[in-house]
Design goal:
The complex is a heterodimer of chains A (385) and B (588). Chain A is α+β, with helices and mostly antiparallel strands and 385 residues long. Chain A contains 9 helices and 21 strands. Chain A has 2 domains: 2-106 and 183-259, 3-Layer(aba) Sandwich (Rossmann fold), CATH 3.40.50.300; 268-383, Nucleic acid-binding proteins (OB fold (Dihydrolipoamide Acetyltransferase, E2P)). Chain B is 70% helix and 1% strand. The chains are: A alpha+beta (385), B mainly alpha (588).
Chain lengths: 385, 588
C-alpha cells in the first residue's frame, strides 16, 4: 500500500500500547455496473484506527469512502478481507463471520440525519439506550438524554419533533443520538454536507470539542478537504477504492506521495520533466521552463526518470522584475488576477500550462503582462506518479 | 492474522447465528403465503393434462368442443380490448387534468378512484340495467318524455352498452396508474420542452407520454386482467344482450350446470391464461423499449397548466364520469328499492323503505351480509398485515428467497381471478383440505387475489420511509423486530389504513371469486346477487346492491375519516424531507 512511506508518523503509533478500535485487513467490495463490468468500490484496503483517534476518509464521490464506512457499520457486506472492532472479529470472509450491525456496538451519524419523524427528540435519543438486554429506568434514561442534549447545546428541544427544527438542530440531535450510548467508536457519513456554510463551520468546531472531551474514536467520511484538515488526526486520501495516502493533515499537504493526493488536498501546480541529478532526496528536473529542484516525497526516482515537480500557490514568489537572486525561476504570462482579500491569486500561463500562485495585494500586476515566478526548492516536491 | 474457525482474536467464540425471531417469523409467514398463492395456479396448469391422476388431453379437447367457443373468444377479446383502450384514454385524460392542470378540485377529484370502489361493478351493472333497459329503463322513460309504453331510445343490452359499462369500471385502474406515473415524473422535463418552444400538445406527445409509458403499460395489463375476469358486468349486461363471454361461460360450467363441467371450465381458463400472457408480453415490451424519464425525487412541485376557457369543460368530464359511474346507477337502485319492484314509471307517493327493511330481515340476506362483513374485516386485516410484513421484509432483506416470495405473492394479481378461483377448487376444495363451500376457502381466495393490490400501498409507504431510518435503528442496536415495530409500523400505519379500506371494499363486494367458489353454505352478498339474478327479479336485486354499496361506503369512509383526523392531529409526525442520498451508495 502506498501509505507505508508516511505511516511512521501516525498517531496510531503514538498511542501505542492500546489495541486498535478498528482493524481492517484486505477489505474488498465489488459492484456490478449496469454495463455488466465489475468494479471494485473498495479494493484490498487495510486500516487501523486507534482509540480516541479521529480518522477522516477523504476522496471524490465514487472513491469508495462511504462504502468502506458502511462496511464497518455492517450495513454493507464486503466480498473479502476482515474487520475487527475492539479486537472482536465482526467480519471475516474466510471464516464466514458476519456480525449484524445491531451487535457491533457502534454509533453512526447519517448524512440525511435519519431521525425518526414519529418520535420526539427525547425519544430519538433514548432509542439506543434500550439496546436489547439493557434495561434502564425511566429516570436514568431521562437523565442521560438531558446530559447529552446539554452536550450538543440544545437542552430545550427534548419534546420537539424533528421536522419542527432547522437542519443544524436536526444534525445536533443526530449527533446526540450517536453519543448517548457512550460508544467508543462513532462513524460519520458526510454529516455536515446538508447544512449551510456558517452552521457547518460552527458544528465542526463543536464536534471536535466533544470528540476531544469524550475521547471516542471517529471515522469520518467527507469530500470536503478543509473539513478533513480541520478535524482529522489522520486523513486517508482515497481514490478508486484504495487508500492513496494516510497521514496527518500536515504531512498529507506538505509531503504528498502522489500527484493524485497533491491535487486532491489543496491546490497544486505541476511541471513535468526528466530527472537530471539526484542528491539524497533532492532531485533536479529538466523541464520545459528550465531547471527546477524539489524534494522527492513519493516513490523513489532515478536519474533519467520522468517525474513531475509539484508546487503550491503560496510557495511561489511572483515579481515584475526578474529575481536574479533566486536560482529556480521562470517567466510566465498573467491571465487573470483574482482578489481574495488577504492576497491576490494570479492565474498564470507557464509555457502553455496553467498555474496558480499567490501574490501580495500591493504587487502591481496586470493581466496580459509578463512576470517572474521564483520557486523555493525546500517547498517544491518531485513525484514519480 | 490467522483465525481458527470458531474463535475470535480474544478467544471468545464466534457466534454464527444471531436469532431474530421476528425476521424468521416474517420469512416463514411470507413463504407460506407465497405457496398458498402459487399452488392453485400450478393445480390449474396440472389440471389441464391430468384428470383424476391420469394423463390426458381431455380438458383441452373438451374445451374445443364447447359450443360457440370461437364466438365467445372473439366477444371477450373485443369487449376487453375496446373497453381497455377507451378506459385508458378517459383515465389518462382525467389523471392529467387532475395532476397537471387547475381543473383539479382537491379531495373531490383526488378521491375519484376511491369513490368508484365504493360502488361495486355489480351494483353499477344492475343500476345501468335499471336505467337503460329498452322498455322499462328509468332513463329511457325520461328520454321518451315519460311515456311508459314503447321502447328505446337507448338500449344497455347491446354491444355499445356492454363496452360502456366495462369502460366505466376500468377507468379507475388507468387513473391510478397514470396519476402515479405523472407524480413520479420530473416536470422539469416538460418545462424544458416548453422553454425550448414546443407547444403544450407537442410537449404532451413527445415528452409527457413517453416518460409515463411504463405507467401506461402497467395500467393496460391491470385493466386487461381485471376485465377478463370481470363476471358481474358480462353476466348482467352481456346475458341480456345475448353476448356470451368466457368469464360467464366458465362460471356457468362450474356453478350452473349439473353435474359441473369442471374439465371444460379448466380448458377455458387456459385461454384466459394465454390472453393474460399476451398482455404481459406486450407490457414488458413497452417497459423495455427505450428509456423513460421517471423519478426526480419525491415531494417536488409540479408546474400547473392553467386552463382558461377549457376549465369548466374539463371539470365537466370529471362530473360526467361521477354521474355515470356512481350517481345515476345508485339513483336507479334506490328508486327501485323504494318502489319494491321495477316499473317503468316512478310513483313518488308509494316510495317506502319497507321493501328495503324487508330485504334486510330476510335470513339469507342477513347471513350473506354477516359473511361478507366477516370476510371483509378479517380478510382486509389479515391481508394488510401480511402485505406490510412482506413489504418490509423485501425492503430490508434483499435475498433471492424474499425476491421469489414477493414475486409469488404478486403473481395472482396479473392472473385472471377466474383462473385463481378454479385453481382454489382444485387445490383446496377436495381432500385433504375439504374446504369446498366454506367461508375459509373464500377468505383464502380473497387474500390470494387481492393481497397484491393491498401491497402496492404498503410497498410505496415502505419505499417512502427509506433505508436510512432503518439503518439508523440497526446502528442503535435494534434488531429486525424492534426496527419493524418502532420505526416502520408507525410510519406506514396511515398507508395501511388506506390499504385496509381498499381491501375491505373489494372483498366485501366481490362477485368474481365468489361466482366460482360460492355456494349456499358460504353465502355472501356476491353469491346472493348471483342467485337472485339467475332465479329472481331486478326488484329483488336492487336492495341487495344498495345494501352492499351503503355498508362498504360507510365502513370505508368511516375508516378513512378516522385515519385522517388521527393523522391531522399528528401532522408534525410526517416524514422529514429526505436529504440527498449518500453519494457512494449509488455505486450499487
Amino acid at each position: 500500500m502506498s501509505g507505508t512511506a508516511t505511516e511512521a508518523a501516525s498517531p496510531a503509533e503514538v498511542s501505542a500500547g492500546r489495541a486498535p478500535i478498528v482493524q481492517v485487513k484486505g477489505l474488498s467490495k465489488r459492484f456490478k455496473r449496469e454495463s455488466g463490468a465489475i468494479t471494485a468500490a473498495v479494493d484490498d484496503i487495510s486500516l487501523e484506527v486507534a482509540a480516541g483517534e479521529f480518522v477522516v476518509l477523504l476522496g471524490p464521490s465514487g472513491c469508495g469512502k462511504t462504502t468502506l464506512l458502511r462496511m464497518l457499520a455492517g450495513l454493507e457486506v464486503p466480498d473479502g478481507g476482515s474487520i475487527a472492532i475492539r479486537g472482536r472479529t465482526v467480519y471475516d470472509a474466510a471464516a464466514k463471520v458476519s456480525v449484524p450491525t445491531e451487535r457491533r456496538s457502534i454509533s453512526m451519524v447519517f448524512q440525511s440525519y435519519a431521525l425518526w419523524p414519529h418520535m420526539t427528540v427525547a425519544q430519538n435519543i433514548a432509542y439506543p439506550l434500550n439496546r436489547s438486554g439493557k434495561r434502564l429506568g425511566k429516570a436514568e434514561i431521562a437523565r442521560q438524554v438531558e446530559r447529552v442534549l446539554e452536550l450538543v447545546r440544545i437542552p430545550d428541544l427534548a419534546q420537539q419533533y424533528p421536522n419542527q427544527m432547522s437542519g443544524g438542530q436536526q444534525q445536533r440531535v443526530a449527533l446526540a443520538r450517536a453519543l448517548v450510548s457512550g460508544s467508543d467508536l462513532v462513524l460519520f457519513d458526510e454529516p455536515l454536507s446538508n447544512v449551510d456554510a456558517q452552521v457547518r463551520e460552527r458544528l465542526r468546531y463543536e464536534l471536535l470539542d466533544i470528540q476531544r472531551e469524550l475521547g471516542f474514536a471517529a471515522v469520518y467520511v467527507t469530500h470536503d478537504q478543509s473539513e478533513a484538515m480541520g478535524l482529522a488526526n489522520r486523513i486517508a486520501v482515497m481514490g478508486a477504492g484504495r487508500i492513496r495516502q494516510i497521514a496527518s493533515p500536515r504531512e498529507t499537504y506538505e509531503n504528498p506521495v502522489s500527484r493524485y493526493v497533491a491535487n486532491f488536498v489543496g491546490v497544486s501546480n505541476e511541471e513535468p520533466g526528466t530527472v537530471v541529478s539526484l542528491d539524497g532526496d533532492v532531485a533536479t528536473l529538466h523541464t520545459a521552463t528550465g531547471e527546477l529542484q524539489g524534494r522527492v516525497t513519493g516513490g523513489a526516482v532515478a536519474v533519467g526518470d520522468e517525474a513531475t515537480l509539484v508546487w503550491r500557490p503560496e510557495h511561489a514568489t511572483v515579481s515584475v522584475q526578474e529575481p536574479t537572486d533566486a536560482r529556480f525561476r521562470f517567466p510566465a504570462r498573467v491571465e487573470a488576477l483574482l482578489f481574495e482579500g488577504a492576497h491576490n491569486e494570479v492565474v498564470l500561463d507557464v509555457g502553455g500550462r496553467r498555474a496558480r500562485a499567490w501574490a501580495h495585494v500591493t504587487a502591481a500586476l496586470d493581466a496580459g503582462s509578463t512576470v517572474w515566478v521564483a520557486l523555493n526548492p525546500a517547498y517544491a516536491r518531485v513525484l514519480k506518479d | 492474522m490467522t483465525l481458527s474457525r470458531s474463535v475470535n482474536d480474544d478467544g471468545t467464540p464466534i457466534r454464527r447465528f444471531h436469532p431474530k425471531p421476528f425476521l424468521i417469523l416474517s420469512i416463514v409467514l411470507a413463504s407460506l403465503f407465497a405457496i398458498v398463492a402459487i399452488y392453485p395456479l400450478l393445480r390449474v396448469v396440472l389440471g389441464l393434462f391430468n384428470v383424476n391422476g391420469a394423463w390426458t388431453a381431455a380438458p383441452i379437447l373438451h374445451m374445443f368442443a364447447v359450443k360457440g367457443l370461437w364466438q365467445m373468444l372473439v366477444n371477450t377479446i373485443v369487449v376487453v380490448v375496446v373497453s381497455s383502450v377507451l378506459a385508458l384514454v378517459v383515465g389518462a385524460v382525467l389523471a392529467w387534468l387532475n395532476e397537471r392542470t387547475n381543473a383539479r378540485m382537491g379531495t373531490l377529484t383526488d378521491s375519484l378512484p376511491l369513490i368508484t370502489y365504493l360502488v361495486p361493478p355489480l351494483a353499477g351493472a344492475i343500476g345501468w340495467a335499471l336505467l337503460l333497459s329498452p322498455s322499462a329503463g328509468v332513463l329511457n322513460v325520461l328520454l321518451r318524455g315519460g311515456d311508459p309504453s314503447g321502447s328505446g331510445p337507448l338500449n344497455i343490452f347491446s354491444w355499445p352498452g356492454l363496452v360502456f359499462v366495462y369502460t366505466l369500471y376500468s377507468v379507475p385502474y388507468a387513473f391510478i396508474a397514470v396519476s402515479n406515473g405523472l407524480r413520479n415524473t420530473d416536470t422539469s422535463l416538460e418545462e424544458q420542452s416548453r422553454v425550448s418552444g414546443a407547444s403544450l400538445g407537442r410537449t404532451l406527445w413527445s415528452v409527457t407520454i413517453p416518460s409515463i409509458r411504463p405507467a401506461l403499460g402497467g395500467a393496460v395489463l391491470l385493466m386487461v386482467t381485471q376485465a377478463l375476469a370481470l363476471y358481474s358486468v358480462p353476466v348482467i349486461i352481456g346475458t341480456g344482450a345475448n353476448i356470451p363471454t368466457l368469464a360467464v361461460e366458465i362460471v356457468n360450467l362450474l356453478n350452473f350446470s349439473y353435474p359441473p363441467h369442471t374439465s371444460e371450465a379448466i380448458g377455458l381458463t387456459l385461454i384466459m391464461v394465454v390472453l393474460v400472457v399476451v398482455a404481459w408480453v406486450a407490457q414488458s415490451r413497452i417497459l423495455r423499449s427505450g428509456r423513460h424519464g421517471t423519478l426526480g425525487g419525491r415531494g417536488q412541485r409540479f408546474e400547473v397548466t392553467t386552463l382558461k376557457g377549457w376549465l369548466w369543460p374539463a371539470r365537466a368530464i370529471f362530473l360526467l364520469y361521477g354521474l355515470f359511474a356512481v350517481l345515476l346507477p345508485v339513483f336507479a337502485l334506490v328508486i327501485v328499492t323504494l318502489e319494491g319492484f321495477w316499473s317503468a314509471t316512478i310513483n313518488w307517493s308509494t316510495l317506502s323503505v319497507n321493501w328495503f327493511l324487508k330485504a334486510l330481515q330476510d335470513p339469507t340476506t342477513t347471513k350473506a351480509l354477516g359473511n361478507s362483513m366477516l370476510l371483509g374485516v378479517v380478510g382486509a386485516t389479515v391481508g394488510i398485515i401480511i402485505a406490510a410484513i412482506v413489504s418490509v421484509l423485501v425492503a430490508r432483506n434483499r435475498t433471492r428467497l424474499t425476491g421469489v416470495v414477493d414475486g409469488a405473492i404478486k403473481l395472482p394479481s396479473v392472473v385472471s381471478h377466474i383462473v385463481i378461483g378454479v385453481g382454489m377448487i382444485l387445490a383446496f376444495g377436495g381432500p385433504p383440505f375439504m374446504l369446498g363451500g366454506t367461508v375459509a376457502i373464500l377468505l383464502i381466495a380473497y387474500l390470494v387475489v387481492y393481497l397484491a393490490q393491498g401491497s402496492v400501498t404498503t410497498d410505496a409507504a415502505v419505499a417512502q420511509v427509506g433505508n436510512e431510518l432503518a439503518e439508523a435503528s440497526s446502528v442503535a442496536g435494534a434488531g429486525y423486530g424492534r426496527t419493524f415495530f418502532r420505526v416502520y409500523l408507525p410510519l406506514i400505519l396511515p398507508a395501511m389504513v388506506a390499504g385496509w379500506a381498499f381491501l375491505f371494499a373489494r372483498m366485501a363486494g366481490d362477485l368474481t371469486v365468489t361466482a366460482i367458489l360460492g355456494s349456499p353454505s358460504n353465502v355472501t352478498m356476491g353469491y346472493l346477487i348471483m342467485q337472485i339474478f339467475h332465479n329472481g327479479s331486478y326488484g329483488q336485486l336492487a336492495p341487495i346492491a344498495i345494501i352492499i354499496t351503503v355498508v362498504s361506503s360507510v365502513v370505508v369512509i368511516a375508516v378513512i375519516a378516522i385515519s385522517n383526523t388521527w393523522s391531522r392531529r399528528h401532522t408534525r409526525k410526517r416524514p422529514i424531507k429526505a436529504g440527498r442520498e449518500a453519494t457512494a451508495t449509488v455505486a450499487k
